[in-house]
Amino acid sequence: MNHYAGFIVLCAPTARSQAYLQAIRSAGLNPDHVIVYGHARPRNQTNDTRGHALALAQPDFSLPLSQTISEAGWPASVIDDDAIGSDEVVQLLQTLSPSLTVFSGFGGQLVPKRVLEQTGRLLHIHSGWLPDYRGSTTLYYSLLEQGHCAATALLLTEDIDDGPILARKTYPAPDQQTDIDYAYDCAIRADLLITVLKQYVTQGCLPEPIEIKDEGEMFYVIHPLLKHLAILSLKETANAGDSL
Fold first, then answer.
1. Over its length of 244 residues, how does the chain's per-residue pLDDT go in tens digits?
2. Within 13 Å, how many C-alpha atoms sit on residue 143's CB side?
3. Most CB atoms within 10 A, among 9, 43, 67, 161?
4. For the chain, how are helix, strand and coil distributed in percent, rounded to 5?
5. b/e 117-149 (16+ beta carbons within 10 angstroms → b)
6. Judging by DSSP bridges, how do beta strands 165-171 and 149-155 pair with one another?
7. Nearest Cα to 65, choosing from 12, 124, 105, 127?
8. What phi and psi, each to the nearest 5 degrees, are found at residue 35?
9. Calpha distance 223→221 (Å, rounded)
10. How many CB atoms neighbour CB 209 within 10 A?
11. Nearest residue to 106 (alpha-carbon basis) of 244, 11, 230
């Protein structure tokens, strides 16, 4: 019996969005629509070619979002306004009326209530083990304290990294030669995203939320010295392992 359930993607032109769309295409999944907002002002992108050493797909950051969308044949809308809560974004969401929206916005943006009211369930992948590592640059705090990293799939609310947690997964630490901020971060997020989406598309339901009792700790942008110490704690080279 086919339990197919549809979804859309709401994304900004960032490295993470490049990784997500490439992973979605590679997995043979097809969003009903892709909304790219902030098209006129792309950011959070990279020209770094170091990649990562995990046994996961390597994002190709030289591949524009438009090319991935075009080659996949996905319906898409492009919005120049980089405000996630713009009237154009809200009106388009109202028209599409999705039951699930995969979100990949600009770093640091909070999703306003008027958007949350139109997205259906808004799926976000956080690079950190929630609720223990909430906030920014949690990969580095996790490396310093745990020696590995993690990603968490959750349904967003108006608060930072808050909402029902659907799945969590730990990953081996990168090595010192890894592009941690882009290649590694995007790869682990995309990996967990596909795990959750495959269940949703094939079984018609998302994973049951995980019961969480602890609120965890909020982390803020890491000091450059601590970031440097986190990188120095890594091996010069790493084994290409799967998730822990």
1. 345 579 999 999 999 999 999 999 999 999 999 999 998 777 778 877 888 878 888 999 999 999 999 999 999 999 999 999 999 999 999 999 999 999 999 988 889 999 999 999 999 999 999 999 888 888 999 999 999 999 999 999 887 778 999 999 999 999 888 999 999 999 999 999 999 999 999 999 999 999 887 766 666 667 778 887 888 888 765 544 444 4
2. 25
3. 9
4. 30, 20, 50
5. ebbbbbbbbbbbbbbbbbbbbbbbbbbeeeebb
6. antiparallel
7. 12
8. -105, 120
9. 7
10. 13
11. 11
**16 φ/ψ angles, rounded to the nearest 5 degrees:** -65, -40
Residue 215, both tokens: 């609120």
Output the CA–CA distances (angstroms, integers) from residue 21 to 27, 31, 64, 187, 233, in the order listed.
Answer: 10, 9, 10, 12, 32
Long-range contacts of 219-228 (CB under 8 A, 24+ apart): 219/128, 219/133, 219/134, 219/135, 219/136, 219/137, 219/138, 219/141, 220/135, 220/136, 220/137, 221/136, 221/137, 222/136, 222/137, 222/140, 222/141, 226/140, 226/141, 226/144, 227/137, 227/140
Q: Would you list the domain boundaries of the chain?
A: 8-232
Going by C-alpha positions, the residue among 119, 105, 35, 27 that lies closest to residue 69 is 35
Could you tell me which CATH class the domain 8-232 is placed in? Answer: alpha beta
Residue 244's Cα: distance from chain center in Å? 19
